[in-house]
Amino acid sequence: MLSYTEENYLKTIYHLSENGSKDVTTNGIADAVNTKPASVSDMLKKLAQKSLIDYIKYQGVTLTDEGRVKALKIIRKHRLWEVFLVNKLSFNWDEVHDVAEELEHIKSPLLIKRLDEFLGFPQFDPHGDPIPTEDGIINHKRSVPLHQMEIGMSGVVVGLNETASSFLQFLDKIGVYIGVKIKVLDKSSFDHSVEIEIDQTSKMMISNEVAKNLNISE
Amino acid sequence: MLSYTEENYLKTIYHLSENGSKDVTTNGIADAVNTKPASVSDMLKKLAQKSLIDYIKYQGVTLTDEGRVKALKIIRKHRLWEVFLVNKLSFNWDEVHDVAEELEHIKSPLLIKRLDEFLGFPQFDPHGDPIPTEDGIINHKRSVPLHQMEIGMSGVVVGLNETASSFLQFLDKIGVYIGVKIKVLDKSSFDHSVEIEIDQTSKMMISNEVAKNLNISE
DNA sequence: AAAATATTTTAGACTACTCTAAATTAAACC
DNA sequence: GGTTTAATTTAGAGTAGTCTAAAATATTTT
Ligand SMILES: [Mn+2]
Ligand SMILES: [Mn+2]
Ligand SMILES: [Mn+2]
Ligand SMILES: [Mn+2]
């Protein structure tokens, strides 16, 4: 049985190894779980002990198969709860993360089975992230960050690389959400900002920083 | 901010002071929270420190007003989640307690507000227990344990004094649930078992032990 | 390749909660 | 009222997780 804390470390290690293609470092984990590197070292020993990670001192960490499955189960719960909060309790998509961070630790397989059913077996969470299956299979959609698209190309927003409230609220304001159609009208070679057409109607200028965090598919 | 553990102690103290009219003892609490009396003594000091309880060594404990409100907020959450599990996720009434025991500690006022709304502002949980309001007002229904009713009297099951799965499943089997009408047909002076009519149709003999745990109102 | 710097680990200590064993106080018995 | 028993509290110690400061190792710079 994993503790609340162990679960958070595992999940964090998973996320860090997915995102950056670099290896997962002690400082990186410390940063993500909001502790000091010394504490992380201790925890890494514990997780290695339980063979949830492969860990060699001074070199990075990788999840074992067992660790990966455990991490994905927590992520599954996190994302299902987010769907619940948004679809059933009408939370905004920028309000769900912290609550889901707690709810993901509730230990009841039946609860998650029934919740999944109740929500109609959703495939994606409110931020466009895929919901892993019970046995840890996750459906990575192929997508491109908006700033890498060519002028004239178009596609659909399928995911985000940033979940900060300020970012989500900004997207709300400009009418961008998961599933909306985006066309690249122009790209400034000066500051790399991007001019886009949203939903075949409104035109907008967005910064490169914003463009980087919008994943487009099709 | 209260810890998970502190919340469980508070809630337990509340329940112990409601039920038995006797005072709340260290051993009683230890029994209820599944720890040793020594640990309880420590915690009582802590809760007294935070002025959530009045505590004098070797004499019992009582909740302060602040402590009572805190306890009722947890109980409110517990019971709302139970309603959710039964009404929305089709849990049986004997399956909800342990999960609610975890869910009650999720810290989000908005979540509870929305959940309450989503459930249609229920007044009672699946076991017939009243759901306290946000500001800690609880509606104690007047009721009598079935074994105290006179022959010929009838009423409606409004609550239970026992939540063990085995008891709830037994009630399922004999067709007793919250809201069902019961009439007392006879009482044995030998073993104090009670003959009842359920729902104006089936007749049953139930033990005194069972009768004690069914609260009837009218 | 040596020196300087950054990263990571260890050592030692702290908090929250728990336990067993011993000491204290209260309650029950005679 | 004094003795026995039961309830409660204290003392001392353990686990999980955290921290700071110091030591060890790796990386970068010159
Ligand atoms: Mn979490
Ligand atoms: Mn999400
Ligand atoms: Mn609880
Ligand atoms: Mn209940």
Detail the topology: elements first, then pairings.
The structure is a homodimer of 218-residue chains.
Chain A: H1 4-18, H2 26-33, H3 37-49, E1 53-55, E2 61-63, H4 65-88, H5 97-103, H6 109-118, E3 144-145, E4 154-160, H7 165-174, E5 181-187, E6 194-198, E7 202-206, H8 208-212, E8 214-217
Antiparallel strand pairs in A: 1-2, 3-8, 4-5, 4-8, 5-6, 6-7
Helix pairs in contact in A: 1-2, 1-4, 2-3, 4-5
The structure holds manganese (II) ion (4 copies).
One manganese (II) ion (MN) is lined by residues 8, 101, 104-105 of chain A.
Chain B binds a DNA duplex (30 and 30 nucleotides) through residues 3, 5, 25-27, 35-43, 46, 57-59.
Task: Describe the protein.
Two copies of one chain form a homodimer. In chain A, the strands form two sheets. Chain A has a six-stranded antiparallel β-sheet. In chain A, strands 1-2 form a two-stranded antiparallel sheet. Chain A has three domains: 4-63, Arc Repressor Mutant, subunit A; 76-140, Arc Repressor Mutant, subunit A (Orthogonal Bundle); 144-217, Roll (SH3 type barrels). The first copy, chain A, is of the alpha+beta class. Chain A contains eight helices and eight strands; from the N terminus they run H-H-H-E-E-H-H-H-E-E-H-E-E-E-H-E. Chain A has helices at residues 4-18, 26-33, 37-49, 65-88, 97-103, 109-118, 165-174, 208-212, and strands spanning 53-55, 61-63, 144-145, 154-160, 181-187, 194-198, 202-206, 214-217. The mean pLDDT of chain A is 95. Chain A starts with a helix and ends with a strand. The interface between A and B is medium-sized, with 19 and 19 residues. Residues 8, 101, 104-105 of chain B line the site of one manganese (II) ion (MN). Chain B binds a DNA duplex (30 and 30 nucleotides) through helix 3.
